[in-house]
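Researcher: Quick test of sequence recovery. C-alpha cells follow.
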C-alpha cells in the first residue's frame, strides 16, 4: 500500500532542520569521523551548488556515495551558512515512483511557501525507483526546480545513464561541464595520500601534486621527455611498493581499507556484505545467481586472455552466448567488471566483434568474487593465497592497471556518458604479438605493456615495434631503450 508522506515524516531524515549541528550525529558522519583513514573524494570539489543544476553521482555499492552527500550537506550547514530547512535529503531505495513524486512535492511545497532562497535536494539511490526521470522531468517542466541544486545518486550505471539521456536541456550547469559524475573506489594515488600523507609535500615539490600535471608527464614520456620529478620519486620506491602491496589487499573501498589497516585482516562479514550487495543488484534486474557464479569462474579461468562470448559460454551451463554477454554487461553496469575490445588496425578504434578481454574493477572486489565463486577457502585465506600465487597476482595487477588507465583516459576526455571501451583497447599485430593496453587520445595511440617480473631486458620492448613507442610497466625497473620507457608499477600508478 502506498504511503502518505507529510513534512514531519520527511523531517526524520533531515534532523538538521531542528538544529544544524544535528548533522554531526548522522551515522554516516559519525562513521567517517571515527575512521582512522578519512577519505574525502576529490569529486566533492567538482559538484558546484551555486546554480540551477541536476548532477548524477554513479558508482558501486558502499564506495561512499551517501557519505559524500552527507559531507557536502555538513559543509553547507556548518561552513556555507545555508538555512538548514533549504537542504533536503532522502534515500529512495524502497520507494515507488508515486512515492518519489509525493516526497519531493511535499518538501518543495512546504519550503517554497516559507522561503524563496536556493534549495538543495539530495536524492540518494534513486536508481532503485523505476522511471524516476519522469518524476524529475515533471518537477522541472512545472518550474519547481528553479533556484534548486539537485544531486542524484545511484548504484546502477545503465539506469542513471540512460535516464538522464531522457532529460535533454533540463539539467542546467555550465555549457561544457560534465554533469554525470562517477565515484569509484579510490585509485592508488588517492590511497597513497590517505595512508602516507607525507607524499603530498614530495609531489608538490616536484610539480606533480595536481592530477593534470601528472597526466601531462605520462604523455610526455611517449615523446621521450622524462621529467626529473618522476625520477625524484624513485627515492620513495620502497615506501610506494609497500603501500602497493596493501592496495592489492584492500583495493580502494574506504571501509575495507580501515578494517584491514586497523585489524590487519578483512572479516568474512565484510566479504559477505559486498557479495550480497552485488547479488542483490543483479537479482533486481532478473539475473540468476547461479549463472553469474558460473560466468565469474569462467572469467577468472580465462583472464587475461582474449575470448569470445561463445567460448566463455562453453565453460558454463548457459545455452546462448548472448546471455553470457548480457551478464558481463551487467557487471559493467554495477561497476564490478570491464570489457576491453581489440584495437582495429583498419579504423583505429575498438573492434567489438572480435575476442575481448574481461577485467575486475577493484582488488577487493576481485578477491571477494573469486572467493565467492570458488568457495574452497575462507575469504581472507583465499585472498592471501591469490597474492602468493604468481599467476593470480599477475591477473590482479593487470586488472589494476586497466582500471587506472580507464581513469587516466577519462581525465584526458572528461565528459558525460564516458565509456572506457571507446578509449582503452588491447592490440595484436599480424604476427600475434600482443600489447596489453593501448589508449586512444585524439588521433594518437599510447601503448602500455605490463611486465610484473624481477628483470627487464631489451627484448621485452619488442611488442612496441608497431608503434615505435611505448611504456612498459615493470615491477622494479626504470630504464629507457630506443623510444621506449620502463617504470615501476607503484610509481606509474601514483602518476595516474
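Model:
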Amino acid at each position: 500500500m502506498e504511503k502518505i508522506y507529510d513534512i514531519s515524516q520527511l523531517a526524520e531524515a533531515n534532523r538538521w532542520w531542528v538544529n544544524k549541528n544535528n548533522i554531526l550525529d548522522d551515522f554516516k558522519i559519525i562513521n567517517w569521523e571515527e575512521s582512522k583513514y578519512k577519505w574525502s573524494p576529490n569529486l566533492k570539489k567538482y559538484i558546484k551548488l551555486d546554480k540551477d543544476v541536476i548532477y548524477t553521482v554513479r558508482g558501486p555499492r558502499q564506495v561512499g556515495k551517501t557519505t559524500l552527500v552527507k559531507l557536502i550537506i555538513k559543509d553547507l550547514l556548518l561552513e556555507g551558512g545555508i538555512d538548514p530547512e533549504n537542504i533536503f535529503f532522502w534515500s529512495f531505495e524502497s520507494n515507488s515512483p508515486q512515492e518519489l513524486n509525493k516526497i519531493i512535492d511535499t518538501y518543495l511545497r512546504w519550503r517554497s511557501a516559507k522561503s524563496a532562497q536556493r534549495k538543495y535536494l539530495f536524492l540518494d539511490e534513486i536508481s532503485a525507483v523505476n522511471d524516476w526521470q519522469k518524476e524529475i522531468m515533471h518537477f522541472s517542466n512545472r518550474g519547481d526546480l528553479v533556484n534548486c541544486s539537485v544531486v542524484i545518486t545511484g548504484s546502477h550505471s545503465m539506469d542513471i545513464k540512460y535516464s538522464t539521456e531522457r532529460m535533454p536541456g533540463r539539467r542546467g550547469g555550465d555549457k561544457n561541464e560534465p554533469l554525470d559524475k562517477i565515484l569509484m573506489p579510490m585509485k592508488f594515488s588517492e590511497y597513497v595520500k590517505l595512508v602516507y600523507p607525507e607524499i603530498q609535500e614530495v609531489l608538490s615539490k616536484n610539480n606533480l601534486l595536481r592530477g593534470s600535471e601528472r597526466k601531462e608527464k605520462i604523455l610526455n614520456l611517449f615523446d621521450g621527455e622524462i621529467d626529473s620529478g618522476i625520477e625524484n620519486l624513485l627515492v620513495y620506491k620502497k615506501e610506494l611498493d609497500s603501500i602497493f602491496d596493501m592496495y592489492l589487499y584492500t583495493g580502494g573501498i574506504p571501509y575495507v581499507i580501515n578494517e584491514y589497516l586497523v585489524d590487519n585482516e578483512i572479516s568474512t562479514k565484510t566479504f559477505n556484505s559486498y557479495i550480497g550487495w552485488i547479488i542483490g543488484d543483479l537479482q533486481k534486474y532478473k539475473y540468476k545467481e547461479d549463472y553469474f557464479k558460473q560466468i565469474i569462474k569462467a572469467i577468472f579461468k580465462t583472464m587475461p586472455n582474449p575470448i569470445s562470448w561463445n567460448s566463455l559460454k562453453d565453460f558454463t551451463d548457459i545455452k546462448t552466448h548472448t546471455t553470457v554477454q548480457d551478464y558481463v554487461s551487467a557487471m559493467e553496469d554495477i561497476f564490478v567488471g570491464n570489457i576491453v575490445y581489440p584495437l582495429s588496425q583498419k579504423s583505429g578504434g575498438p573492434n567489438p566483434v572480435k575476442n575481448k578481454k574481461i577485467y575486475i574493477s577493484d582488488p577487493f572486489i576481485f578477491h571477494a568474487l573469486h572467493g565467492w565463486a570458488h568457495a574452497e577457502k575462507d575469504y581472507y585465506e583465499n585472498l592471501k593465497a591469490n597474492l602468493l600465487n604468481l599467476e593470480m597476482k599477475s591477473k590482479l595487477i593487470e586488472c589494476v592497471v586497466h582500471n587506472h588507465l580507464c581513469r587516466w583516459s577519462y581525465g584526458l576526455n572528461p565528459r558525460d556518458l564516458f565509456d572506457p571501451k571507446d578509449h582503452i583497447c588491447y592490440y595484436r599485430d599480424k604476427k600475434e604479438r600482443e600489447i596489453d593496453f593501448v589508449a586512444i587520445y585524439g588521433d594518437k595511440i599510447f601503448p602500455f605493456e605490463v611486465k610484473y617480473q624481477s628483470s627487464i631486458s631489451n627484448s621485452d620492448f619488442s611488442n612496441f615495434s608497431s608503434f615505435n613507442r611505448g611504456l612498459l610497466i615493470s615491477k622494479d625497473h626504470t630504464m629507457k631503450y630506443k623510444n621506449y620507457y620502463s617504470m615501476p608499477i607503484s610509481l606509474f600508478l601514483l602518476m595516474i
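Residues 190-495 form one domain.
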